[in-house]
Amino acid sequence: GFASNSVPVLEFSSNPILFIAMFWFVLLWKAVHFYWVHRFLHWKPYYDKVHSVHHRNINTGPWSGLSMHPLETLPYFSGVLIHFIIPSHPVHFLFHVYALALNPALSHSGFDALIIKGRRVLELGEFFHQLHHRYYTCNYGTPEMPWDKWCRTFHNGTQADTQRSRERL
User: What is the Cα–Cα distance from 58 to 133, expressed in whole angstroms?
Assistant: First the structure.
């Protein structure tokens, strides 16, 4: 990989701005990749045999984020293969892997935010992902990317969206 120069490497010294921007690209790519992989995981034959293991966690907690069938880990972590194509640095790769490994604990924590005196002080989880586990035909993506809105799979927690979600079944 990086050590043998068999993949394109981006050094900080060669382009510091691009090097720093690459962290944002990794997050953007992670969100795009996750949405489409997650939609694939909900393809009925795959869902029934593989992804349904993860969805047994209806009342999610931090450990349910990566509680999945072994065959689900392959597509989930496959986004890191982008580093074999796009010039990056080992620190970008590690950042990507850490984000994939640690983010599910937050998104499945069962909490949306730390609220002190009625004010959201710290974003902790993703309420709309909780809705995904409850209805499973909505909110396949992450809040930073509007794929669910673009693809009409967004659920905001209202009764009207619940009805639309049930109609998709």
Answer: 5
